[in-house]
Amino acid sequence: MPTFPGADNGGPSWSRDGQWIYFYSDRGGGPFQLWKTPFKGGPPVAVTRNGGVFAAESADGRFLYYSKFQVSGIWKIALYGGEETHILDQPEGWDPYSWALVSDGIYFLKQTSTKPDIEFFEFATRKRILISSLNEPASFGLDVSPNGRSIIFVQHDSYESNIMLVKAFQ
């Protein structure tokens, strides 16, 4: 998949039709922006101008929802051009990778001063609904099952490290 050599490229996600792969890149030191590249090959195409790190297409294929590394919250932009719109505000320190788009809203991890909550932002009412208060720290990923009945997320039970030894290398 063509990305940018020497850049921080990551956060891949598929377009709904499977023809494109979205990703973020600092393109060699600049702010992170969203790009898309054809699945079958070809050069990357710029998607955002004001930042972006994690993206998901709407169920109807008309909009791209995304988060930014530099600024908290979720935005959307029409897939075929237009200005970005701020959809969901979040306090500083939120995790730009811990949210999931469904047809009627966005599930997201809300960081609190004690332990995080999983909330749902409903598009129709623009209300935030508490889904669950978590007992342990969580971050760096959240998704919803295709049938909308289950949520997966990363929970930090402990922080561990290992010291590794490599022998007989040249």
Short description:
This protein has 170 residues and is mostly beta strands. The protein is built from no helices and 14 strands.
Q: What are the main properties of this structure?
A:
mainly beta; 0% helix; globular; four-stranded antiparallel sheet
Task: Summarize the SSE layout with pairings.
Elements: E1 9-14, E2 20-25, E3 33-38, E4 45-46, E5 54-57, E6 63-67, E7 74-78, E8 85-88, E9 99-102, E10 105-110, E11 117-122, E12 127-133, E13 138-144, E14 151-155
Radius of gyration: 18 Å
The biggest beta sheet reads: 4 strands, antiparallel
Residue share in helix: under 10%
| SSE topology string | EEEEEEEEEEEEEE
Shape by Cα distribution? globular
Strand arrangement across the biggest beta sheet:
1-2-3-4
Number of strands: 14
Distance between the termini: 32 Å
Q: List unreliable stretches of 5+ residues.
A: none
- Please give the count of helices: 0
State mean pLDDT (0 to 100 scale). Answer: 87
Secondary-structure-derived class: mainly beta
Written overview of the protein:
- The protein has 170 residues and is mainly β.
- The protein is 0% helix and 43% strand.
- The strands form four sheets. The chain has a four-stranded antiparallel beta sheet, with no helix packed on it. A four-stranded antiparallel beta sheet has the order 5-6-7-8, with no helix packed on it. A four-stranded antiparallel beta sheet has the order 9-10-11-12, with no helix packed on it.
- It is globular.
